[in-house]
Amino acid sequence: MIFDNDKALKVAEFLLQIKAIKLQPNQPFTWASGILSPIYCDNRISLSYPNVRTYIRQSYTEAIEKEYGKPDVIAGVATGGIALGALVAQDMGLPFIYVRSEAKAHGMGNQIEGYYEKGQKVVVIEDLISTGKSSLLAVEALKNAELDVRGLVAIFSYGFQEAHDSFEKHQCPFVTLSNYDTLLELAISQKTIDEADLALLKSWKSDPRNWNKK
Q: What domains appear along the chain, each with residue ranges and CATH number?
C-alpha cells in the first residue's frame, strides 16, 4: 500500500531523474537469485542528492506518524535502511538502532545494534521491498528481542503478491512511499517507455520467477 498518491508520483519522478531506478525491458538485469528483471532499483543513490534525500526523509516521517503514530525508536534494516533510518530518527527526535542480516560471529554477537529496551514501540525503515524476505528477517529479530514492531515503511515496492502474503503471514503492516505501478504510470505519461515496453513490464510483475522462461 502506498502512503499518498501524489507523493508516490513525486518519489517515482525523483528516482527516475537521479537514475536510482532504470527500466530496461529489452535488456533485463540479472538478480543474485538468477531472476531476470527489467528494472534496476538502488534507492541508496537518493542519499547523494540533498533535495531528494530531504523529500524522502520528510515523507517517511509523515507516513510513520499517520500510519503508526510516534514510536519509541526507529530501526533500519542493513544495509539500505541504515542511513535513511538514521535521518528519519533525527527528524523525529528518536533513538535509532539497526538490524543486521544475521548476528555477528565475533565480539558481542549482536544482530541488533544500538540501545533499546524490551517493550518499546518500533517502526522499521527499509529502502526496497522485493520478496520481503530480508525485511521480515529484521522484523522477526526485533520481535525476538521483545520489541513491539508497529510496522514498516519503505521507499519502493515491486508489488509482488509473494511479499504481500509474507508480510500478512508475519502480521507486520507496511506502507511504501512509491511502487512499481505508480512508476509505470509515470513512465508511460513521460514517454520514458512505450506501450510494448509497458506490456513487458507488467508481465514481469505478474510472474517474475518465470518471466525469463517465456
A: 5-213 (3.40.50.2020)
Rounded to 10°, the helix 80-92/50-68 angle is 70
Closest CA to 40 of 160, 152, 158, 181: 158
Cell numbers at 13, concatenated: 519522478
Span 121-163, pLDDT tens digits: 999 999 999 999 999 999 999 999 999 999 999 999 999 999 9
C-alpha cell belonging to residue 27: 535488456
Q: What is the pLDDT of residues 19-47, one digit of tens each?
A: 999 999 989 999 887 889 999 999 999 99
Measured CA to CA, the distance from residue 133 to residue 129 in angstroms comes to: 8
Question: Which residues make Cβ contacts (< 8 Å) with residue 62, sequence separation at least 6?
Answer: 3, 4, 7
Other CB atoms closer than 10 Å to residue 149's CB: what's the count?
A: 23
Peptide bond into 79 cis (omega under 30): yes
Give residue 147's pLDDT: 98
Contacts of 80-84 with CB under 8 Å at 24 or more apart are 80/43, 80/44, 80/126, 80/127, 80/128, 81/124, 81/125, 81/126, 81/127, 83/44, 83/47, 84/43, 84/47, 84/56, 84/57, 84/60, 84/125, 84/127, 84/155
